[in-house]
Write a structure and sequence with these properties.
With 197 residues, this protein is α/β, with parallel strands linked by helices. Helix 2 packs parallel to helix 3. Strands 1, 2, 3, 4, 5 and 6 form a six-stranded mixed sheet that branches. Helices cover 30% and strands 25% of the residues. The protein has a domain of 123 residues: Rossmann fold (3-Layer(aba) Sandwich).
Length: 197
Amino acid sequence: MKHLALLFLVIAALITSGCSPKAYSKGAYVDPERVDLLSDKFVEADLQQIAEQLSASLLASDVANSGEKPAVILSLFTNATDEHIDMISLTKMMQNEIIKSRKFRFLNKMLRSEIAQEYEYQQSGFVSAETAKAQGSQIGADYMISGHISSIRQPVGKREIVYYKTTGELTNITTSEIVWTDEVQLKKAFKKRHVGW
């Protein structure tokens, strides 16, 4: 009887340890440039490829090489995929690449309301007149960068093809003419398999 009770205790312990919640207990830094396609979702490598290719194309355009260093504002890209994609990260990655080239001047569209509040504060009398900034000195933008991303999924049995297309545009704010456009296409193939617990 003692042996039977001990056997039940051992079995119960094994079952309990097997069903206990799992947690990540050990990690390591990996190269952010390394591509890990662990699911059929949009991943950081997609973000990097799109930002790098669109930025390189824009920097090779006539506008970028006119010698004028035009002022631009960056609009958030629109997302027509069925996934949540961090569009701010995409546009910021492009902005970083383009600013490094020193071919454009970037105006901060996202902080316009905060800058307007700062003008009000600096003109309120709390800031010395010698250092207070006033309205009317901002640079007007010459161009706007915008874009759009879409996707198509083709699941067939255990296989799936995921296709992404991202289009970028540079629009002349004075004339509304699109003076540059390009697109990046990504196509990924996946195969379903059982994942062990």
